[in-house]
Amino acid sequence: PPHRQNCAPEGGLSPGARQAWSERGRGAWVERRGRSGMLNPLAAHAHRVGAMYCLLLSGAAIASALVTMPSRGIGRTKPVVRARNEVPLRMCGILAVFDSRIDDDEMEKLTKELTCLLEHRGPDEVGYRGGPGFGLGHARLSIMDPAAGHQPLVSKATGAAVIHNGEIYNHAKLRARTAKERAAAGKPLYEFQTGSDSEAVLPFFEDLGEGVISQLDGMFTVIAVSADGEQVVVGRDPCGIKPLYRGWNTDGRVIFASELKCLVGQVEQVEEFPPGHYWTPQKGYVRYFQPKWMTPLLDPAEPIELPTGGTNKIRETLKMAVEKRLMSDVDYGLLLSGGLDSAIVCKLMSELTDMSKIKSFTVGMANSPDVTAARAVAEVFGTDHYEYLFTPEEAFSIVPKVIYHLETYEPELIRSSIPNFFLARLAGSHLKVVLTGEGADELFAGYLYFRDCPSREAMQRETIRIYDALHNVNLQRSDRMGMAHGVEARVPFLDVEMLRMAYEEVDPAIKMHSEARMEKFCLRELFDDGDIPQDVVWRTKAMQCEGVGTDWVSILQAMCGDVVSDAEFADAATKFPLNTPHSKEEYYYRKIFEEHFKGFDKFVHVWEGGCRAGGAAWESSAYTRAGLVNTDQLKHGLMETEEAAVAQAIEAAAESDKSASAHNSPVMSVALLERRESAMAEQRRLRELRLKRKQPRTLPELLVSGGDSRLTLLDNGANAYHCPPRPVEGAVIRGSCTGSPPNVAGFDAASALLSTLPDTDDAIAVGTELDKVRQRLLEALELPEGTALVLTPSGTCAEYVPLAVARELFPSAPIRSVHTAEGETGAGGVHACGGRYFNTQVPLSQTPRTVGMPVPGFGKVELLTIAARNADGTEKDAATAFADAVAQDANDADAEAPVWVLRQVVGTKTGFTTSDIASVLDGQADPSRVLEVVDLCQLRRPLHEVAAHVRRGACVLLTGSKFFQGSAFSGAVAIPPSLVAQMRANAESAPPLPVGLRDFITAHDVPALLPHWRRQLPAKANAGLLMRWHTALPMIEGVSAIERERAQACERVWVHRVERLVGAAEGLEIFHEESGIVSIALRRPNGRLAGKDELRQVHKWMSSDVSAAPCAQNFPLSSTPMFIGQPVSTGDFAVLRVALGAELLLELHVHSLHDDDDDAQVISKLKWVNDNFDALYNWGAANLKIDLAPYVGERQLALKSGHFGPLPERPSRDIGHSVAEAKAALLQCDAVCLDVDSTVITHEIIVEMAEDLGVGDRVREMTLKAMGGDVPFHEALRSRLALMRPSESDLEDMRERHDPAKMLSPGVLETIRLMQARGVRVFFVSGGFRQMIEPIAEACGVDKTDIYSNTLLFHADGSFKCHCPQEPTSRAGGKAKVVVDLKKEYGFKKVVMIGDGATDMEARDVVDGADAFIGFGGCKVRSKVLDGACWFVHSFAEINAVLCGK
User: pTM for this structure?
Assistant: First the structure.
């Protein structure tokens, strides 16, 4: 879970931290919890779904710490600076067990176990205090100063103990009062040990006993116990803001707990502890809060005296309540719902504090009533505002988490808690205290059903009735969702003085609704002073589940209906006789509740009639069980409805129609009304699709998500470029641009990442991984410090980023955008460079766009396009063409000078580089108004050139899906430090980002260097983009380690080979060769060169199995998919491209050779297709399908992650599962595969070498984790390399210091010789380093060609760069793949694998893998290997005995 990732491993704490966490003082027990503390299934579930973030402050020498929480929002994260004597905030869970029948040890064990279930409320530590017949547990989260405030708190004088959850606002007054009263009585003063508000309870408990509870002002649950356990008092605040439950058995056991989940399986009866009460064993419950206005609750039959006052004191009273809740020692923020109540709190906060330091948070769907209104409020009051936009699918996916934390099946409460869950998660990533507007609707009749209220008395009784239910609804939602993410919500409207004012002084007539007086009219009048936007002041009341989006609830209900069968629902009354579900939605909620809280359904509060209005004394049609009937009334003037947005966009297109041809934009050819109706029909279609769509789970599904329609898979399982989203077994890859499937190493890397992501909808988790991608790219490309790397869903989308930079720096200037190499860059680039939509589908919105329409917010963009080639096919001189255009341009002397965005393409589709056009403007334009953009998307250049362009101030466009053979599409823009500095300096005065940018880029795609961009972009994260970049990273990092001269030499060798093959193939002619791309023209039998349409067919047939064609009977290669570059028009004819990719370059670099047959096969098939073009065309391969059978590595990974659905059944074969069978396999095998580290060589040698590099302990730990399967092997390898980072000289030194013969495990040399004497081939299959293994293999008589391990790559200076990602053992399932391939290549009938780790054992557990696995105990071995091995040995002597017939 995320909150564990920043914690030091067990045993890895510094001495200072170890002392802090093991401190035992004042009779209290404090410990840092790990997974071992989870003692039952409910606790384990709490651990999974209650994930939060924490920081372990290790070592007493740390004076201060800066914590930047992973941001789910958009905006800046600032350091929090506090004085040393400040009191930490505690968000807590409390638990008390009273049972005189169990001993002290059992009491301690039980209390700790149950308290662990509350870890989401306080994940830092569990505190325990025991005594005669009782145990107190406290789960605590402390942000700063972990040495203070440990609970339970214990009186030094009497030993009395207290546990407390919440905040006591009058604790300072109580401290002063107890000192004064004790001094007056001549009693010893209480000796306070902390500054905690909780400790103020103890002296009053000692002096007043049960009377202490009525002295407290705040939101709290408190349990105080005397040292002997004889005196006990439990209390809860008047409103029930903080939760508490009481459970008991007939045998006398009583348990109090903050949440219901602690009582499951422990007690027979449960009840919610009533608000405004205290409890003692002697008296039971006693109401201490019973003001006069509560008469309708205390005695419903008693006549009530209605107040007759006004609202003149409300504003002042509420302001004091807000001020009280701002008294905090930590940063606080504000939940802005977009409604009146939170806007009022915001307004009053602005009168008390600096709002520029206040963070506000809003959640909703795009263009929802809440989001637009909250944004307006935040803008008026100047808060640092964050938003999270969710989808119905995302809402549905978190329902189980919501119900687990909420502990109810009440449908209205669950619906409203879903957006609150997202909101708390967003706020919790920034701070820990927020103010909210909860309670105002109960005090001032805000709900719409009050429109039908018949009288003043009915109004008074109903508002008090729903106030009394608050602890079961709004307050339960606010507390549980907040505490699930470590956020404490404070509610000024529920201050006790506000309650008195609203119910004892304000005439209920003032709260009545009428045509002239809408709901909460009195509050609206009070605060209609011009500060809060009018559209918010007079906005119709919306409950949270309604205001966040007007149609999401109906979509959610439909999704719930999809997962409940008709048969299940028909049996609802039988299965759930109490509160029987009325709909499939309710049934789904109830079923989830039953999974966690079986038998507790009778303890849940359910609204009478199924909704809030159901229990009113009058009838109202405003609400039903399904929610608000008419959601259209929630729309307000700040909203731009979808219909208005479509109409506005169409009008913009019409205005630009006159200059459409000048901008290469399509001329509108249909009536505006038809366009609008078509767009609306498409929106309806997409909405219906959303109801049916399932969340992507497999990697191939994710790889085609979060992009435009070019990612869409066709019926043949591939995209429009014939590329499937996974490697294709047996295929030959020689593609250029996006013309190839993802490489194997990259696909494995992305698969492994996916297996570690618990939820691809979790924007924080995905965003954290995107930050890692960004950092790895910066390092691999060696970009200068201060470079801002913006990730984009494609290279075409990247074109918008330089335009946004230009618009920010020059808000009112016209942008003159120059697009070069037209025809040899992406087809959508022309539109994107002009600030227009290039695809009907955008990555981040379901609403279709019109190609050629302006992207909103870019303003005036004048586009000039320069073709890549002249009419005769020769390369066009871009600089000359641009100079001609500039010379003809007539500037308006009075107009503002333009800002130029000039592009140079370094590597077109055929490989050439356009001439530099920026020099044309020398002396003609202000250099500061010229933004250079270098299109390096092909990246077929030495990687140091990327950094060189950035250093000179150019923006550089990159992709991972062309040369690096990552999955299509992934883009990035490197913004140079010079521009970043300007943008940061002008951030406060910068204009808003173009709103249309939100269609393409999320906040997580932007680095922290640009916080003002993050604030304005959607807070969701693009998991598809993350996965696509991961498929490219192994190749990028591998190629970055190759020296320029070496890469160029490898390229020349390969190009020469291809040129000779093409030259020998009749009908194929080389058109151009540059940057590792060989462009080939096809001459038809009639002598004509093929055109682009013809080559599109050729390209399709090359990538497909066309063996069914009659002409293919005598051509065996017709079934082999061969991926080459798509056709490019060069004038009268077109060319196809055969290209050197990163995968092949690494193979050439590492092995200095490659399989020439692959290139020969490509050219052979290309010639055959050309020769048989007419026959293939007449055959009509309309239904061609690419063979997408998953390759072995993918199947192997599926065994662990389950991401790829059901696996094929393992074929029947002789697999040694017993010791006897393993020994038989050893004697009958054709080959044996030996792991090296901790098997062939001793584990002690590995650690010794690591200790030479200063990282022995960490490497030992990482090795054990990988060996036991706790972490994927490729991740352990990367971590181990990151720790060791051995240089070439380090390896040389280690080879000199360690004699290979002395590194061997005892008996292994004899084993190898005995096997070889029997004619058995011996292979070394290891995740270790080839440079170290080769001398060991030589000493053992194993040929170098029989080594499968990892080759380390180095910089020119000999420093470590990375490992070669081409080596199969560096990838997930690599050892298994090696074994499978060996059996296939050599025809081995039986292979035995010997090793010490889980990855070795996996070689047996795949289809066609090893026939037996012998586990070796050369190191500490996990139970997985001990239990799973066919035969486990502790030394090679045992194996040798079998081989010798003993």
Answer: 0.47
